Amino acid sequence: MLVASVILLIGVASAYFISKKKNKESHIVIQNIEKIIDDKEKIINDISKKLEDAGNNIPTHSFDDDYKIFSETAIFKEIKNSLEGKTIMTKTVGDYPRLALSKVKLITLTKKFNECFPNLVHTLIETHPELTTNDIKYIILGTMGFSCQEIAVLLQLAYTSTNKRNKHIRSVLGTEEALEHYLPNYLRSLKY
Prior knowledge:
By secondary structure, the protein is an all-alpha fold. Helices cover about 75% and strands about 0% of the residues. The protein is built from 9 helices and no strands. Helix 2 runs antiparallel to helix 4 (about 105-115), helix 6 crosses helix 9 (about 180-190) and helix 7 (about 150-155) crosses helix 8 (about 160-175). The longest helix has about 55 residues, at about 1-55. It is rod-shaped.
């Protein structure tokens, strides 16, 4: 019986020490897991901060800043100067054939517009797929502040054709306001 008690005591002591050792190992494992979690949280926070900083560094386009750059281009100034001091009325649209923009000037104007307003034309067409290439030319000239009569002269079109295009564009954009006044505010609202 004494031998049995000693064996039982040794068994209990062994179980106690094994349990204590496993408890200590479990505690170490838990500490390691907590450290890993802390490290991962730190990495996630660092990545979140970097993403936030990167988002703040993405160049944003301000219509007014882009317009200022556009208005300083040679083609913009040339077209604006060509109509300076001229009062063009509906009846006198056909009296200014020399002021019509050549294809090269229209291409140059469109190119400069696209350079100064990156993705704006794409955004316009994506938002309003009914817009045509000719509508875009009209919109560019309207954005420059030209009236329907002035655009008729610059595109060498009859006033009725230009007026019809004007009405079409206003319908597509959902406005009754004159485009030369409406377009800058509308384009400001687009994210491009």
